[in-house]
Amino acid sequence: MQSVRFVSLFLSFLALSLQLSAKLPEVPVVFYGQLSHQVTEPLIPLSENLIEVVAKLDGVEVASAYVSSGSDSYSLKLPMDDGQEPRLNGHVRGGERVRIYLRNQGESLEVEAIQSASQSGFPVSELRGDFVLQNLVVADDMGGATGLELAFAEWAEEEGLDTSDVQAAMVLDSDGDGHSNEEEFIAQTDPNSSVSVFAVFELQVVFDSTFIRFGPVAPDRRYTIWSNTDLSNPNGWSIEGSIEPGYSSDSFWFGLSLSPDAKTYRVEVQLKP
User: Fold this and answer.
1) What residues have CB less than 8 Å from 200, skipping those under 6 apart?
2) What is the Cα–Cα distance from 240 to 21, expressed in whole angstroms?
3) Is the separation of the CB atoms in 200 and 223 below 8 Å?
4) What is the reported pTM?
5) Are residues 47 and 99 in the same domain?
6) Which of 19, 136, 214, 231 gives a 20 to 30 Å CA spacing to 255?
7) 18 confidence band (pLDDT: 50, 70, 90)
8) How many Cβ atoms from other residues are within 10 Å of residue 67's Cβ?
9) Contact at 8 Å (CB) between 253 and 213?
10) Tens-digit pLDDT profile for residues 137-178
11) How many structural domains is the chain composed of?
12) How far is it, in rounded angstroms, from Cα 57 to Cα 160?
């Protein structure tokens, strides 16, 4: 009687073990790498849940992963089938080919990676848990951040501005001084102070030279001085000179050649190329 009970318990335990083992998932194969759009530009989303990497098997989506805000790297886990029948839905097997797409959720845009399209997909590794480097490139503009937007976002966070929507933050005039936050970033003025503005302060004539004082200046900016002798002519502006100071200062003196004509001057601030 006891032996029968023992065999019964053993069979029950064996059945339970088999049931548990069948539920253990296979270790996924991981595709990872960097993203580019417009062929050569890094694809960097400005916000979370905007750019998505998608894997499809025979036209059916089997895996997806969002790209982190401010990053051009991705990691995509492919759920692996155990090779037994019936086949697990939404899983892939080693040796099969998956096609990889980039998707912009905000613009409802989905484009297959150039390498995926040209090779009819990427082969799935036979090795469970394998990490496969696949840098992805698309020719389309997927709406990622520009270099200006990324630089602005970093500066705006340091200045305490809301960067949840970077493009909206750029056009906003946070301190009401008549200059957008983007203009304040370029000029390196304080976006939280209405008295912090870029300006031409004065002109002085010394012997045969004219000196113009403007500011503030920053090391990674280029300042171009323009002049016009006839403001009724919008095309009459000409460049007097440009300077890249290489340091920060509240103001900067720049020497110009003395002109017998009356001139109006303006100073243009640009990010240094």
Assistant:
1) 212, 213, 214, 265, 266, 267
2) 78
3) no
4) 0.63
5) yes
6) 231
7) very low
8) 23
9) yes
10) 999 999 888 888 889 999 999 999 998 888 899 999 999 999
11) 3
12) 45
Residue 14: inside a domain, yes or no? no
Helices (H), the chain: 2-23, 114-118, 147-158, 166-171, 181-187
Residue at 95 is within a domain: yes
Give one word for 3, left, alpha or beta, with left for phi > 0 and alpha for psi -120 to 50: alpha
Among 145, 157, 140, residue whose Cα is nearest residue 46:
145
Flag whether 3 is in a domain.
no
Rounded to the nearest angstrom, the gap between the alpha carbon of residue 107 and the centroid of all alpha carbons in its chain is 16
Residue closest to 224 by CA, chosen among 235, 233, 236, 237: 237
The span from the CA of 242 to the CA of 217, in Å, is 13
Reported residue count of the chain is: 273
C-alpha triplet 248, 251, 253: angle, nearest 5°: 110
Domain that holds residue 242: 199-271
For residue 24 the two structure tokens come to: 């253990």
Q: Which of 145, 179, 185 is nearest to 165 (CA)?
A: 145
Residue listed under structure tokens 């009356």? 262
